[in-house]
Amino acid sequence: MSQQPIRRALISVYDKTGLEELAYGLAEAGVEIVSTGSTAARLTEVDVPVTAVEDVTGFPEVLGGRVKTLHPRVHAGLLADRADAGHRTTLEELGIGGFDLLVSNLYPFQETVAAGASLGECIEKIDIGGPAMIRAGAKNHSSVAVVVDPAGYDEVIEAVQSGGYELEQRKRLAAQAFAHTAAYDAAVATWFATTYAPDEVAVETGWPDFYAETGHRTATLRYGENPHQRAALYRGGGDAAGPGLAGAEQLHGKEMSYNNYVDADSALRAAFDFAEPCAAVIKHANPCGIAVGADIAEAHRKAHACDPLSAFGGVIATNRPVSVALAEQVAEIFTEVLVAPEYEAGAVEILTRKKNIRLLVVSPPDRAARSEERAISGGTLLQSADMVDAPGDVPSAWQLVAGPAADEALLADLAFAWRAVRAVKSNAILLAADRATVGVGMGQVNRVDAAQLAVTRAGDRVSGSVGASDAFFPFPDGLEVLTRAGVRAVVQPGGSVRDEAVVAAAEEAGITMYATGTRHFYH
Ligand SMILES: NC(=O)c1ncn([C@@H]2O[C@H](COP(=O)(O)O)[C@@H](O)[C@H]2O)c1NC=O
To answer: Which residue positions does the secretion signal occupy (predicted)?
Structure first.
């Protein structure tokens, strides 16, 4: 029999959202309710008949709640397969009632850790009895329905009234239940490995001996990077309510594609590296323009001007609300995605004149809070995010290695170029003027070609521009491509064994060159 009537329910919930309505519905349908301590107290307060779990177990709730439901009378009731004659006989002989429904949610361990509670409080918020019950009921889904999310309470009432859940529904509920306890256990294990009981290597390096990433599917995508690839979006469990692209709200446009997400993420990374109003235009995860401006519309105008040809069909991110002026500009350009922290009144109406543009609202991503992951065959690489706060990222920490010191305006352009080059795939050379990119050489396998590409793209604008190189010049040749074309100042990490020759080339060309001591590869 696929449908399983609900006659007896065990309710043990920390989060009491929707509890009363659920209990009224169950009581009205004549379902017997068994509950733990404060869940039972709440139901009694609202006049719902309830049996205390202690009356079922014949054992008091003890040790400050550490032992409430951890009892054979509870677990046999959850684990007995009603289709198994032997199980039924055992329950009868022992006088144990079976449960048809378990409603439970767990102590808020993750929230307690996030709130900075003491280690002792965090330990106390590790739920033991709840996961044990949930896992028991979920294993025995042929007989028991397990509900772990208050959002499912309406469905519980519907099921009770219609004669119980179908087997397929109980299987799905069990799948959700195991996902719930798995994410919970992953959070506990991660906290032990990182904070409470890290091993020696973790203490020394910050990398725990255990790593778990759990997530919920929030979208299936039409396809992956190419039409023959399948793809979906999962939102990180630890990040569930957090900021970032995976939780962005889409206001308009077609469904986001896999490549849209990748490009929008690169665009956000670039735009939010700057404190001033900044716009980044991205294609294939590389910038075709980044600029800062007095306001966001000016920033976008400057970014777009870098390479209008490539900006066609691009993805734009801004680190400021989209103004009406910006909306008017973007509405004129074929744009796949615009992602921003907010849209000012009227901006969305202007942009939606374009049927296909995807408009996303995003809370600023907190990249520092997460390790960056990359799948490799058979494993995963983790690294801390490359932020713009490395020691050599502040111009005051740079070393002047050639030519005269830059004046304020030149230094501002160099500082802009140094930040912006981080958004360019290596090997990267970026040329800028007036705090806007004018030529980007990206993704080359040698630095000379990257320099040549940047110069070619900049065209006439190369003369008087400044250059940034994501890593040192291994030979003078790459730098010479820039100086011959008219670049007047360069910032680069330095540190090549041939630094002397590179500096000599800069001196000979009469340009200013700074060394940052910090590298920003981006692959
Ligand atoms: N120890 C136990 O036997 C036990 N059984 C259930 N719990 C949890 O206790 C909470 C409900 O308790 P109360 O009804 O007292 O608020 C639920 O989050 C449930 O997951 C337990 N608590 C922790 O492990």
So the answer is: none
Phi/psi for 18 (5° steps) reads 70, 5
Are 401 and 516 in contact by the 8 Å Cβ rule? The answer is no
Cβ density class 493-504: b for 16+ within 10 Å, e for less: bbebeebeebbe
Domains and CATH numbers, the chain: 8-193 (3.40.50.1380), 247-361 (3.40.140.20), 395-515 (3.40.140.20)
DSSP per residue over 11-63, as a string? EEESS-TTHHHHHHHHHHTT-EEEE-HHHHHHHHHTT---EEHHHHHTS--BG
Nearest to 473 by CA among 452, 451, 500, 494: 494
- Helix, strand or coil, per DSSP, at residue 467: strand
Alpha carbon separation from 266 to 53, 261, 302, 383 (Å, rounded): 53, 9, 19, 17
| The predicted structure's pLDDT at residue 237 | 60
Residue 255 has which token pair? 């469904």
Q: Where are the beta strands (DSSP E) in 129-245?
A: 145-147, 215-221, 231-236
The residue nearest atom 21 of ligand 1, judged by CA position, is: 129
How far is Cα 438 from Cα 413, in angstroms, rounded to an integer? 11
Residue 238, pLDDT > 60, answer: no
CA dihedral 56, 60, 64, 68 (to 10 degrees): -20
Number of residues that this document lists for the chain: 523
Q: How far is the CA of 484 from the centre of ligand 1 (A)?
A: 73
- pTM for the whole structure: 0.91
Positive or negative, the Cα torsion across 213, 267, 481, 457? positive
Whether residue 427 is preceded by a cis peptide bond, meaning omega within 30 degrees of 0, is yes
Nearest Cα neighbor of 435 from 294, 328, 268, 330 is: 294
> Is the Cβ–Cβ distance between 296 and 323 less than 8 Å?
yes
Phi, psi (deg, nearest 5) at residue 515: -110, 130
- pLDDT, tens only, 300-325: 999 999 999 999 999 999 999 999 99
The burial class, CB within 10 Å (0-12 / 13-18 / 19+), for 16 is middle
- Please give the distance, rounded to the nearest whole angstrom, from the Cα atom of residue 369 to the centre of ligand 1: 31
Provide the residue type at 233 as one letter: L
**Taking each helix axis from N to C terminus, what angle separates 296-306 and 324-331, rounded to the nearest 10 degrees?**
20
Q: Which residues contact 57 (CB under 8 A, 6 or more apart)?
A: 69, 71, 73, 74
What average pLDDT score do residues 333-352 get? 97
**pLDDT range class, residue 236, cuts 50, 70, 90:** confident
**64: CA distance to ligand 1 center in Å?**
10
